[in-house]
Structure formats: C-alpha cells, structure tokens
Write the structure tokens for this entry.
Amino acid sequence: MEQLLEYRQKLLDRYEAAAREFREAVEAATQPDVPREAGGWNVRQIAAHTRDVEKFVYGARVRRTLEEDDPLFENFDGETYMTEHYRADEPLASILDELAASVRDNAARLRTLPPEAWTRPGRHATYGGGFTIQAWVERALAHIEEHLKTVQG
C-alpha cells in the first residue's frame, strides 16, 4: 500500500511539473502561429487543445468520478471541438493560465483524497468500464506530455 501511495504522490508531482514544462515550452516558441508541420496545428492551437482537454475531458472526468457513482463519459472529438471553439485571437497567456489553474486545482483536490477514493470507477461510452480516478489522472498526464514533446519539437 505504501508503494501505491508513493506512486500517486509522484504521479501528481509529475502532472503539475508537466503543466509547468508545457507552459515554458509554449512561451519559448518563437512562432506560435506557424503550423508545426504541413497541415498541422500551430503552438497556439496545441496549447488551446491541451487546455481544453485538461479542463473539459480529463479534469471533468476526475471531478465527476469523485462526485457521481460510476458516471458514463461520452467520447470527445478534439478536432470537432477545435473547429467549433478555437479562437486564434485568444492570448497565449490566458490559455496557459487556465491550463495551470485546472491542473493545480485538480492536483490539490487529489492530494486530499483518502486512498480508496482513487479507485472510484467511471465508464467510457466507447471503451467500457474500469476507468478509475487514477486512470484518468494517468491519461491527463500522458496527454500533456504528448503535446509537450510536440511543442518542444
């Protein structure tokens, strides 16, 4: 049990660190509005997407799993969401502030959970059941790290 508790604390530490590293990488980008590859997203779009998935997908799944019994989550279509909600004039600082606040608030709440709360279940409409709070946090971290690598090039 001690190893599991230690793993979860390290997971939260890394989750917060990844958000900070993502911010630093985005702020270091010299051309945030130039696509990273032909036909791809630019750094501002990647930042907005990362923020939106943190707030409205993984962060929301963590919160709902804490508040509801075995909630069902619909699939999230990131491309469609970006098409409908992306604003090219949104300041990068605002995007990054919102991402940081979401990660910080979720991590703070998660640090206060009793160990058994981490295993509360949720279900995904496409992938089925068995998604615990720990699984959603692991996915949230993986998503931030994936886009961190993209921004870093």
Remarks:
- The mean pLDDT is 95.
- The chain has five helices and three strands.
- The chain has one domain: 2-152.
- The radius of gyration is 16 Å.
